[in-house]
Amino acid sequence: MASQEIENLASALARLPGLGPRSARRAVLWLVKHRETALEQVLDALGAVKDKLVECDTCGNVDTQNPCTICADPKRDAKSICVVEDVADLWALDRARLFTGTFHVLGGRLSALDGIRPEDLAIDSLLGRVEQGGVDEVVLAMNATLEGQTTAHYIAERLEDHAVRITQLAHGLPVGGELDYLDEGTLAQALRARRPLG
Ligand SMILES: [Zn+2]
What's the gap in Å between 20 CA and the centre of ligand 1? Predict the structure, then answer.
C-alpha cells in the first residue's frame, strides 16, 4: 500500500543479493524513517561510485580508478600475482588481509558445458604480465569446483615454460565452495598454507 515510487525502490532493492522482498521493504521503511540523515548519505555514496566505476586495465578489478587501488599501491608486492575467477573472489581474498601481492581476475572459469573457452578468459593478459618480468609467483586461487580446478591446471600448463613458481590455495577449502562465501580466517589459512600445484 505505497506509491509507485516507493514500490519501485522496494523492488529495486529486492534484487540485491541477500535481500528478498521482505528485507527490501524493511530497508525502504528504515530509509524513509531516516530520510534526513541516512537517505542522503546512501544517495551520495551511490552517486559517487555510479559515474566512476571502471575496470582496471592491469588486473580486471572493478574500482573507481584505473589502475585500481591495489595495482596503484606501491606497498603491494608486484612479484606475486594471485589469480581469481571473479571480482568477488578478489574482494574476499583482499578482505582476509594476508595476501600483499597483486591480483588478476579471469572473468570466469573454463567450462565445456557453458562453452567458456580459454580465449573468453583473461589468460593471455596474465601471461603478458608474467612475460613483462618481475613476477616470481603465481597463486592460483580458483574455486574448489571441478571447473575451477580444470582452469587452474590449464593456466599452470600455459605457465610451464615461464620462470615462475606456481602455487595454489591449500586444500581444506570445502569442495564446490565458492571463495566469496568463506570467512576471512579460512581464506587466510588457505593462503598461508598455499603449496605448489601438483
Ligand atoms: Zn588492478
Answer: 32
